[in-house]
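Annex B. Sample input.
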Amino acid sequence: MSDRLLAGLAGRNPVGLGRHLAVHGPMPDVTSELVREVTRAGLRGRGGAGFPAGIKLAAVAEGRRPVVIVNGTEGEPMSAKDRSLLRRTPHLVLDGALAAARAVGAHEVLFCASPQANAVVAAALAERAAGSRREPRVTVLESAPGYVAGEETAVIAHLEGRAPRPRVTPPRPAQQGYRKRPTLVQNVETLAHIGLIARHGAEWFRERGTSDRPGTTLVTISGAVQAPGVYEVASGMPLADLSRLAGGLTEPARALLVGGYFGAWVDEDGAGMTLDDADLRRHGAAVGAGVIVVLGASACPVAETARLAGYMAGESAGQCGPCVHGLGSLAGVLDRFATARTVPGDGERLVRWTEMVSGRGACAHPDGVARMLASATRLFRTELEEHAHHGACSGCAAPATLVLPGPSRARAAA
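Annex B, continued. Sample output.
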C-alpha cells in the first residue's frame, strides 16, 4: 500500500517545493466547495478528539473575518507524527492550511509549532515567495509547552498572550476564538489530509479506511518493537499487525497503550481489535493521537502507570478540584502500589477515586487520565495485588518505556 501523507520522502531532509509538486501535483483553485468536499470525505480530526473536520470548516465559514490556526503543539509525549510532517513534508501541511483558509474566507493563518518545526515551515514559505498566487498571510509562532497546551482553546489563549489553559464553556472557537473572531483550529495531520482532498476529492479519500473513519492515519509506534517510528496505515488496520509493521517485537508483549496518555491499556497485542474508534470504544480505548506503545513483558505495568499518573497529575491546568486534588491523590495511591507502601483500602480508593474525577473537571484532562487509569486497574489487577502483598517486582528496575518530559514552563509561569 503506497503512502499518501508520507509520499515522496527521501532521507531525513524536508521535501522541497519542486519534489512536492512532482509527487502531488499542483494545487487546484480552491473555493468554498472544499468545505462540502471535506464533509463528503468524512475526514475526522487527527489531533485526538476525532471531530468531523467538515463541520468545523462549515461553522467557521459562516462567520466574519475568520482566522485559521495550524495546531502543531503536539503535547502528547509519545507522539511524533505532527512534528514529522512539519519537518519532512511542510509543503503538504501548508497546502492544507492555505486551502482551508481560502475555503472559509480567512485571510490570516497562524502557524503554531516548536521552534525546530517552525524553522522548516519558514524555509518552505520562502520557497513559495516567488509564486504569483495571492495567498492568505501566514504568521509563524512558537507553541507553548505542556500536555494540555495543545487543546484548541489553550492554543488560542497562548497566542493571545494568556496562560495556555483549556476551557469548555461556550462560545466555541468556531464562533468566537482568536481575538473574538471565528477560528478554525486544526491539527497538522488533519490539514495535510485537506491538502490531498483538495487535489483528489472525497471519493479518492474514502478508498481506504473504514466507513466510520475513512482515509489513512499516521501512527507513532514505540516501546518493545524493532523499528519504532511514524507509520502511515489505513484506518481499521488490526492492532496485531502494527508491531509487525514496526519490525516485530523485541520481546513478548504484556500490553499496548492505545491512543496516548489519554488512551487506554489493552491486553498484549490487541488481538481482535482494529485501529477504528467504533471498534476501540468497545474496549474503552480510542485512536486518539495515533499512539501505540508496546509494553514488553520485562517491564512493570504498575511502575509505568504510577509514573504516568504522577506526570499527568503534574500537568493539571489547575482550574478545578477533581484535577488538582483528585489526580494528585490517585497518583499518590499508585505510587504506594509501585513502592510497596500500600495501606488498607488503597485498591478500593483507586477504583472509587477514578470514578469520582471522571466527568467533573473544568476541561477534559481529568477525564482522559481517568480513562487511562480505569483501563490499568482492570488490566493490571494481578500485578497491583502482587505489589501490594509482595513488594516491588524485577520489572520495576527495568528502563522506562513511557516518555515523561520535565515540568512545563507554562505551569511554572501560571
